[in-house]
Amino acid sequence: QVQLQQWGAGLLKPSETLSLTCAVYGGSFSGYYWSWIRQPPGKGLEWIGEINHSGSTNYNPSLKSRVTISVDTSKNQFSLKLSSVTAADTAVYYCARMPYIVVVPAAQPDYYYYYGMDVWGQGTTVTVSS
Amino acid sequence: EIVLTQSPGTLSLSPGERATLSCRASQSVSSSYLAWYQQKPGQAPRLLIYGASSRATGIPDRFSGSGSGTDFTLTISRLEPEDFAVYYCQQYGSSPTTFGQGTKVEIK
Questions:
Q1: I want to staple B35 with a disulfide (CB 3.0 to 4.6 A). Which of A32, A90, A116, B8 is the partner?
Q2: pLDDT digits (tens, 9 = 90+) for B48-105
Q3: Beta-carbon pairs below 8 A across chains A and B
Q4: In 3D, which of A82, A87, A88, A91 has the Cα closest to residue A64?
Q5: Could A117 and B37 be called an inter-chain contact, meaning their C-beta atoms sit closer than 8 Å?
Q6: Residues 6+ apart with CB under 8 A from B38
Q7: How does pLDDT run across A101-118, given as a tens digit for each residue?
Q8: Residue B88: its chain A contacts at CB < 8 A?
């Protein structure tokens, strides 16, 4: 049974850097995209970005200038850094896994098929306050 | 980016009733990469449906998804007490992946 265990500082001051780590237990690290998603209090879900086992990243343009997602395959962990935080970054932060496969159709280019985010971490509450 | 609009905002129903939740996209969702999640208070979201209509592992068959292009639907055929929660749709066919604002299914 795959589990994602996440941790990091829960209280930050404005302008500091948010740093969270998510560890993958009981499963492979390859064949998945690993995402960070956040949820402000009482609001909906916002995707922050993702990384795969080879380090290929995609970020939400709204946060791209402040976000870095990295991976440590030797530890089966991936991490989020969000710089220059403000009160607007106060949220519950989740890590999550999205499986994908490479489809090889006959006489057509290969393509990726993605599944939904099937495993989530427990969430970390991050509060930004002076 | 693709904007997802869910309706209604709140659905008030009784156990045993049928729930129909809508998710409309501002542009066509590539390859029907549309997922539905259930979230209960204090918990992480749980994947119900991916690829618009495929149930995730362990999801009861009272949950079903349908639709393509810009209009998608999640149907819960007979509400069980544990189904009262907030439901989100997500498109992951184009970057950035985006979520709808959620539909709350509450006990009438």
A1: A116
A2: 999 999 999 999 999 999 999 999 999 999 999 999 999 999 999 999 999 999 999 9
A3: 55
A4: A82
A5: yes
A6: B45, B46, B48, B83, B85, B86, B87
A7: 888 888 888 888 889 999
A8: 44-45
